[in-house]
Specification:
- There is one protein chain.
- The protein is mainly beta and 181 residues long.
- Helix content is 6%, strand content 38%.
- Strands 10-4-5-6-3-2-16 form a 7-stranded mixed beta sheet, with helices on one face. A 7-stranded mixed beta sheet has the order 7-11-12-15-14-13-8, with no helix packed on it.
- The chain is globular and about 40 Å long.
- The C terminus is likely disordered.
């Protein structure tokens, strides 16, 4: 089954901003984005996917991880890919589950350390900070227009993302369900 747009529920955040960081795996030519803490209690419950992008969601509809399985060299380069000037922290929940989502346009800056996943053109100024380094843009009807990942770091063989997960609460090496993507 396929959805043409992704509907989000935006609420006032109840706690601190979740950690988030993108790791471009040079050996795999894929981007893995860790969103939120790593724990045995938090498991992937559902997903949304397109040809080259997958969002992993927990049982509450919170984004846990993103996989972009397309080489950076194939992303469209835009000279100026600025961060939103205004973005409020928010509790963002995905309302669609186990669906095929539209393939976003992948746009990066010259340095390759930002990636915009453009799902729909929108003049909306409504940007929210989902987690550190992760912004979402919504249209007036609460549908996802774009997702922006900033401060992407290069990684090789998953070493950087593994260290990051350990810092967040421990990579559960013996638990295959702990990998968010």
């Amino acid at each position: 089954m396929s959805v043409s747009t992704l509907t989000l529920k935006i609420d006032t955040p109840t706690g601190t901003l979740h950690p988030g960081r993108g790791f471009y795996q040079q050996d795999e030519e894929a981007l893995y984005v860790q969103v939120g803490e790593v724990s045995r209690e938090r498991r992937c419950f559902s997903y949304l996917e397109a040809d080259t992008v997958r969002f992993d969601l927990d049982q509450h509809g919170l984004l846990m991880g993103i996989l972009v399985a397309q080489a950076r060299r194939r992303w469209q380069v835009e000279k100026r890919l600025a961060l939103p000037r205004i973005a409020e922290p928010a509790d963002v929940r995905w309302l669609d589950f186990r669906e095929q989502m539209p393939q976003p346009q992948l746009i990066t800056n010259r340095a390759g350390n930002r990636l915009l996943l453009r799902f729909a053109s929108s003049e909306s100024w409504r940007w929210y900070l989902l987690a550190e380094n992760i912004h979402v843009q919504v249209d007036p009807d609460g549908r996802l227009a774009a997702l922006l990942i900033s401060d992407i770091v290069d990684d090789f063989a998953g070493k950087g993302i593994s260290r990051y997960r350990k810092k967040l609460g421990g990579q559960l090496e013996d638990d295959p369900g702990s990998h968010p993507t």
